[in-house]
Amino acid sequence: MKHFDSRTALAMSLVLSGAGMAQAQDAWPTEPVHVYVGFPAGSSPDVLARLITEPLAEKLGQPVVVENKPGAGGVIGVQQMLAGKENYAFGTTINGPLTTSPRLTADVGYDVAADIAPVTLIATSPLVLAMAADAAPGDVAGFIDAAKAEPDAIAYGSVGQGSGAHLTAELFADAAGIQMLHVPFASYAEVTTSIIGGEIDAGFMAPSAALPQVEAGKMKMLGITSSEPFAQVPDVPVIAGQADIPDDFRAELWNAFIAPAGTDPAIIERLNAEVNEILKDPAVQEQMLTMGWQAQGGSADDLSQRISDDTETWGAVIDRVEAQ
Amino acid sequence: MTAFDGLMHGFSVAMRPDVLIYCVLGVVLGTFIGVLPGIGAMAAISLLLPITYYISPEAALIMLGGVYYGAQYGGAVASILLRLPGTPQSAVTTLDGYPMARQGRAGVALFASMISSFLGSMIGIAVLIGLAGWLSNAATSFGAADYAAMMVLGLVAASTIGSKSPVKAFAMVVLGLILGCVGTDVNSGVQRLTFGQTELLDGINLVALAMGLFGVAEIIGNVRAAEREGSPPHVSLRQLLPTRDDLRRLPGPIVRGGALGALFGALPGTGSTISSFLSYALERRVSRRPERFGEGAIEGVAGPEAANNSAAISAFVPTLTLGIPGDPIMALMLGALVIHGIQPGPLMLDARPDMFWGLVVSFGIGNLILLVLNLPLIGIWVSMLRIPFRWLYPAIVVFVCLGVYSVRGSSYDIAAVAVIGAAGYLLAVARFNPALLLLGFVLGPLIETNLRRAMLIGRGDPMIFLTRPISAVFVAATVALITAAIWGALRKRREGLGQR
């Protein structure tokens, strides 16, 4: 075939690859799917991810492999997802790497708007304001009064500079018109120990971190940062609207399912539908709640909106903290 | 419930056939992952975690616990035979264990390490039963200032171990402190010495550092030596047995190491690596002939091994009595409980006594199994030395890479091991002791965060270190130690002048 020229070859290869693409979409996934998690096995983000990936594997008819790539507050997990195979690498992440990390870390190596395709919100978690059981303030108003006695009268613990616990406390301080002393720790375990030991006064923390100590009579919870009471700790009053705190005060951590920006839109749509269905399962909701998470779900656009809203809110808090 | 009732109840849980099987499984697995350099309890437990979904929570915790303390037994094997610590906790065991092996006393060193591990664990268990309540109170009353002062004392006390030249020792400690600074500063969020690499934001991987400095550096160093040497010396059965003198030297270090380990294990965040270092430093100080240390002193094996095992047991004190995990591995174990819907916390002891006492009894059973398992294995481990280095070393390098990768699934860490290994070889050639670098690396960040935290809490007033009683005692001890060292050095110089 001497006249089999390059143009024919090109046309043929185009036809072939076109057919291949169509087939790939119909049959997706044809191989195991990888979900990157930026935290170690056994951590709360990891357990959340596994609650989703196990039923997801059944629905997709392919194994869904959780890849734990811990480090840099979850940023490494997102980086590794972006380096993964197209249409087969996804991720679940906490809010930090998508909202505050690009501000706080010199170079995260990705641009959230350009490189990340949101799939769906998985769950949200409010924080509670906790103190030692024998501390004087009995409610949020009393806490604010005590803090107003003098600047830095109250020392609070967080899980690190720029962590959700730190930024939430600063958001609260700004809303309440108070100034508190920030003492960073590495984990909630250390923060609770320090509060019980009387070294620091307070801390914003995950309800599940405070609850065991509250039940043992060692700590108390003054308020919660969600806009509605939270099912895990239904008796804790919402902070919004108390004392001079505005009614729209709200601070929540969240966990979301994401994909690299180049992912086939049909696949994102499929994943959104499947994950939302999984989140409707009462057993999954129940398990999330015992860990202090409220199952959410929603559209990809909802998640986009949340990312941009939170980037703005927390960005403003970071600006204030940096200006201090 | 009295301790006696508790123990009886614990037996009924721990002797259940299913629980017993998982206990055996855990300790056997622990021994082997401990022996393999680089692969540690952390990696093994995270791999086992998904399995625990399907077994009872008691069996799950007992198995994971078995892996944790079982690894402390195995860790010493490679430290003694190859100067290659199986786990960072047993790095200090290389200092005297390896010289013993070179003197043909590998069997004795392994025996000492096994028996010390066992008795150290028993001390830890006794503390867990008798003093759990007291220790958990101690853990909450220890503030940042107390931690900082205690760690400074530890650093000063241990900073001359394993080195003849004080200048070289000091240089290594400082280098370790600097390497410990790498990563994100907790207080300000500023990145230090990361050179823009995201992988360094959480600091240098401890396992990569330990494996590079000891393992890879040792292998590079031995490649040339192995070409020259013939087969390693034949070890007869007689040489496996400790002499009466050896046995006489064991009880002291074991009791002191066990006690030290029990204290450090119970304090969240300090851990067994530090307790093994401090036990070594303590043994050298109380010894009448400290110059024997580093030349194959059996006390230098017994103390640290008793300490790290005791610490592995007492680490369960804050975890079980307060619901506060002292290290990432303990956090993982709590995660296993959360999966089963058990919320760890101060109430767990009352709400789930089967959990606590079952675990305590299983520690006893597990350690007995480990002793019975490991004593006969000594002969087999020693015969490993007869494997030609050209077969052994490539295999070890593979295991080191696997182990380091398993910590957080990062190929960056494997490259780090290679770089650290090359640097470690140069340090070894120049006769610097890497153990001190590791000491600085482990203690430095703890001292820094606690010191700065204490200053923050004290609103900038350094008197917080003297007004808190625990801290004041440590500060006084540190000052006494430094004064004694300076006075000793001055007197030596004066005597030298007098003779002239």
From TrEMBL, chain A:
Keywords: Signal. Residues 1-24 form the signal peptide. SUPFAM superfamilies: Periplasmic binding protein-like II. InterPro entries: BUG, Bug_dom1. Pfam families: TctC. Belongs to the UPF0065 (bug) family. This is Tripartite tricarboxylate transporter substrate binding protein. It comes from Paracoccus albicereus. The lineage of its organism: Bacteria, Pseudomonadati, Pseudomonadota, Alphaproteobacteria, Rhodobacterales.
